[in-house]
Design goal:
coiled coil, HATPase_dom, 587 residues, transmembrane, 5-stranded antiparallel β-sheet, C4-dicarboxylate transport sensor protein DctB, Heat Shock Protein 90, alpha+beta, Beta-Lactamase, kinase
């Protein structure tokens, strides 16, 4: 009674602390979001500018290397065109030492290749001896060199995507053209070097045609056509692209649907231009690193705030200690109760075996009334057939009387089958395992449950394979399990307007029998196989049917599970090992 007075004050104090805590957290979150947004914008602009400057420096270096290579190679044709030995070879038409001399020049100069053409355009000397004998009379290098007195630079397309870059010059003697010297410039080595970079690099001529590129498919195409996207971006890709570009300036271009930064510079040679496209990944990585540190700092600040606001909880530690002492006493009491319950469970396990047979006999008692009604119908029919047979015999019509006796014999067989079902159900099943066709067990169980099924309007659907489904089991105990599942389904559909029970038998690696009903379902799936667990009213059942069935299936090497169906109702699934052909032959 003494603790009742300060309770309202404690609640009001807790409410005040909670309100202030929520306000502080909200303000910290808003402040952190603003700082992150501003930092992201500022750092994105700064790192983008740094990345652009670095790209411009790289382009200046690439352009200088290309110009140096072109200028160094442009002098070679002039020197070779004045070589006395090459002029003498063309004059005498003796070319045995020409290729060797060109190879020596190549190793000293570092040119890609050198070829010597005679006046008719035939290759008479080459650093690549496989080219000897080929005729380049219609090649632009040969034609333009004969027409001009200076060195000619030619860009000729290859059979494969790409171009050959060559310097050519006519070899003259006494103002007569003796031949043409052609020196190739190895610009492809720069393309191969660029391929190892993350940036996309390309070189265009004065008309915008791509001459060199890190993407081979771009060579020979106009710039706009080379850069157009191959596939239209999906909605998800567009959303991700928008989320990635929200904090930066609009991109210079899109390369295959990805935003890139374009850097361009002029090459001091025939109006060529060199262009690089840099992705924003490096920028985003650096910005994200700084933002991650900011977010971590705000998280630490938020944690410190929680710590400072929660210090008042320390004053309640004395109360918690007192409550912990009470909990220890309660724990000791619970341990004693647990020990007593374990003792009761051991006694229950002993009594369960005795109650299993009692439960089956109780079920037999429930069936006896319906079965006696089933026996009365054949008895009444037999009496009618006997009276008819007596009259037929009196009228000397024995053939027709024999048909009546045959019907009486059929009724007697039916009554015997009913009584045999009762006797087999009342008898305990032993451990006599034998090959059993699961289809026959389902049929026998349905036949034994026929009186209960006829007492109500229940739709039964049965789906069985055409081939036998053989398992190794005790036939009586197996039928007992199926009967228990059918009785459980009947009880579950008592309040259903259109009750239905579906039996589905399938065979694969294991034999699976599904018994489904459209009843109220199972509320506590974890307890459904526990002994004495039942949802029936007192006097209608003791809750041992499913527990006994689970034990029987386990003894047969299988498994019995339960679940709620999607459309309502419950599904019980029994799995048993299939009896293979080898095991059946051994048996």
């Amino acid at each position: 009674m003494q603790d009742a007075a300060p309770e309202p004050e404690m609640k009001a104090e807790n409410a005040g602390i909670s309100w202030r805590l929520k306000l502080v957290v909200l303000l910290l979150v808003i402040f952190g979001a603003v700082v992150v947004l501003v930092t992201n914008r500022w750092l994105s602009e700064r790192f983008t500018e740094v990345t652009r400057n670095r790209a411009e420096l790289r382009l200046a270096l690439y352009s200088g290397n290309m110009i140096s290579e072109l200028q160094r190679t442009s002098v070679v044709p002039l020197l070779l065109a004045r070589d006395p030995e090459l002029i003498g070879a063309l004059t005498r038409k003796e070319y045995s030492a020409t290729s060797a001399r060109l190879i020596s020049f190549q190793s000293e100069i570092g040119a890609a290749s050198i070829i010597l053409l005679d006046a008719e355009g035939r290759i008479v000397g080459a650093t690549n001896r496989n080219q000897l004998g080929a005729n380049l009379r219609s090649a632009p290098q040969y034609i333009e060199a004969q027409r001009a007195k200076d060195t000619i630079f030619t860009v000729a397309p290859r059979e494969t995507p790409g171009f050959d870059f060559t310097y050519s010059r006519a070899v003259r003697s006494d103002n007569q053209v003796l031949g043409v010297i052609v020196v190739a410039v190895d610009l492809m080595k720069y393309e191969r070097a660029w391929a190892g970079l993350q940036d996309a690099v390309l070189v265009t001529d004065s008309e915008g045609t791509v001459l060199l590129a890190t993407e081979p498919r771009w060579r020979g195409l106009p710039l706009a056509r080379a850069l157009e996207a191959r596939d239209a971006p999906s909605a998800i890709r567009r959303a991700l692209q928008g989320a990635a570009d929200w904090a930066q300036e609009p991109p210079d271009a899109y390369l295959s649907g990805e935003a890139v930064m374009k850097t361009e510079t002029r090459v001091a040679f025939r109006g060529w231009r060199i262009i690089t496209y840099t992705a924003y990944d490096s920028v985003r990585e650096r910005v994200n690193g700084v933002i991650a540190l900011e977010i971590m700092g705000f998280a630490i600040l938020l944690a410190v705030t929680f710590y400072m606001l929660s210090r008042r909880a320390w004053s309640r530690s004395v109360t918690y200690q007192r409550e912990s002492a009470e909990l220890r006493l309660l724990n000791a009491r619970l341990q004693r109760e647990i020990a007593e319950r374990e003792k009761v469970q051991k006694n229950l396990a002993v009594a369960e075996l005795t109650l299993a047979q009692s439960s089956k006999l109780a079920a037999l008692g429930e069936m006896s009334a319906a079965v006696s009604h089933e026996l009365n119908q054949p008895l009444a029919a037999m009496k009618t057939y006997l009276a008819g047979a007596r009259l037929l015999l009196q009228r000397k019509r024995p053939e027709e009387a024999l048909s009546s006796f045959q019907r009486i014999d059929d009724l007697i067989d039916r009554m015997g089958a009913i009584t045999r079902q009762l006797k087999s159900y009342a008898r305990k099943g032993g451990e006599a395992f034998e090959p059993v066709d699961l289809r026959n067990s389902v049929s026998n169980a349905l036949a034994m449950m026929e009186p209960q099924l006829k007492a109500r309007t229940v739709r039964i659907t049965r789906t069985l394979p055409r081939t036998p489904v053989m398992v190794m089991a005790d036939r009586i105990r197996l039928e007992q399990v199926i009967i228990n599942l059918l009785r459980n389904a009947l009880d579950a559909t008592k309040e259903t307007r259109q009750p239905q029970i579906d039996l589905l038998l399938s065979a694969g690696e294991t034999a699976i029998l599904n018994v489904r009903d459209n009843g109220h379902g199972i509320k506590e799936l974890e307890n459904v196989f526990e002994p004495f667990y039942t949802t029936k009213k007192p006097g209608e059942g003791v809750g041992l049917g499913l527990a006994i069935s689970s034990g029987i299936v386990t003894d047969l090497g299988g498994r019995l599970t339960a679940r709620n169906a999607d459309g309502g109702g419950a599904v019980f699934e029994m799995q048993l090992p299939i009896l293979t052909g080898e095991a059946r032959a051994a048996e």
